[in-house]
Amino acid sequence: MEQPDPTTTHAPDDDRTAPDATAPEAPAAPDATDDVDDAARERALLAGLAEYELGDEDLALLHGGGADGDDREIATTLPVLAVVGRPNVGKSTLVNRIIGRREAVVEDNPGVTRDRVSYPAEWSGRRFTLVDTGGWEVDVAGIHKRVAQQAEVAIELADAVLFVVDATVGSTDTDEQVVRLLRRSGKPVVLVANKVDGPAVEADASALWSLGLGQPHPISALHGRGTGDLLDAAMDALPTVSAHATPLPDGPRRVALVGRPNVGKSSLLNKVVGSERVVVDDVAGTTRDPVDELVALGGKPWVFVDTAGIRRRVHQTSGADFYASLRTQAAVEKAEVAVVLVDASAPMTEQDIRIIQHVIDAGRALVVAYNKWDLMDEDRRPFLEREIEQQLVQVQWAPRVNVSARTGWHTDRLVPALERSLASWDTRISTGRLNAFLGELVSAHPHPLRGGKQPRILFATQASTRPPRFVIFATGFLEPTYRRFIERRLRETFGFEGTPITISVRVREKRKR
């Protein structure tokens, strides 16, 4: 089969998965009459909320959620609170309890989850970044060095630490090893005695004084028992200003190149820079450290970060590969937009999907680049189309670009895709327009009845950008399928191409008379 020549003008079917170089036209701006109607609707809905039970956090959101502004520096310079501990002690359950929604993955199989995931959180008016560091595993062969490496990196990136111990099991040798690392770090530590579901187990929690980390705080992450007192203690330990979070630069937008090993990340960076900036080799895993390079593209400065390939099982690597994987994850979290490279000439793998999901979970703008297009024959193309339709059905909103990093084919289309994703990442919808949109949507497609009751949407506001986050006040729980329906219509109406968006629901009841 003759190979396609990427240096020639592409055929129309070559570009079925590649966006045009020009951005789509923006929706027409509402006229003055629409603005007046939207503002009147907003005032009426806000007045109706006075009949419902609202907390201080709700009131702060309602009064400040619609204000325009740059959320980037606020979101990236908040103090960092890390939740650490052995597998199966309830770390992810505690993270979900603190952030108020089921977002952190709860994994019963020890050692499977190793990714460090950050979540915005708030307690008593203080905002901070909560980090779930995953479980620490000591296998049957007793490889303690790997545990120490993971512990040192996780603790080093935090301003304070919540050390979670299973009170029903008590302290183990692994717990005591982590305690020694915590003491050497000098970081503030709050000892958490989890799984204290009742007064009968509090005696077991008291036994954890022997760890020498001060008072153990008995809680039940599953039921919420004692978590308020724990967070009060955590706020006392957490500094006001982070010593570790790095503000995103004001100027060049930061782009992380991520993907599986040997997918062409370094080759793409060299082609964009125009020189052999990084080492390229056929051996997978050549890149160890993230490489930052300031380049000018499309008349604008950009910071491109070449990262090490994310392997399938990070927790099974050691030494340089282990640290390279951690640095890659940190590079994604410090970036504003990630370009996920996929090998178009080979079948898409589960790891490709996992890397894309990792970028989404990190809340970064996204562009999917199908590299090695020059190595793909005609027989491969229909299979690639089918893989995209089946495996990326939930990520149809991400711009897709077909490129060849080796020859430079279509690399000029990368910048327009990045600009569209970043523009959506920064987009804010006025509260009036948002509620007008939801009013029309609910009128045409109301939430289905469940148990004879139908939840009613009271009010909605965009709480933040980068990525866009929406909060809906409702009289009852909105099912996940209906939330996905709202998200799909939001994208159809307002764009949001290339950015993840989150929709959270706060159920509120009427005040008792």
Structure report:
This protein is of the alpha/beta class and about 525 residues long. It folds into three domains: about 10-20 and about 245-425, P-loop containing nucleotide triphosphate hydrolases (Rossmann fold), CATH 3.40.50.300; about 30-70 and about 430-505, K homology (KH) domain (GMP Synthetase, Chain A, domain 3, 2-Layer Sandwich); about 80-235, P-loop containing nucleotide triphosphate hydrolases (Rossmann fold, 3-Layer(aba) Sandwich), CATH 3.40.50. The protein contains 15 helices and 15 strands. The chain has helices spanning about 30-50, 55-65, 70-75, 90-100, 145-155, 175-185, 200-205, 225-235, 265-275, 320-335, 350-360, 380-390, 415-425, 430-445, 480-495, and strands at about 80-85, 115-125, 125-130, 160-165, 190-195, 215-220, 255-260, 290-295, 300-305, 335-345, 365-370, 400, 455-465, 470-475, 500-505. The strands form three sheets. It has a six-stranded mixed sheet, with helices on both faces. Strands 8-9-7-10-11-12 form a six-stranded mixed sheet, sandwiched between helices. Strand 5 (about 190-195), helix 7 (about 200-205) and strand 6 form a beta-alpha-beta unit. Helix 1 crosses helix 14. The radius of gyration is 25 Å and the shape is globular. It starts with about 30 loop residues before the first helix and ends in a 6-residue tail after the last strand.
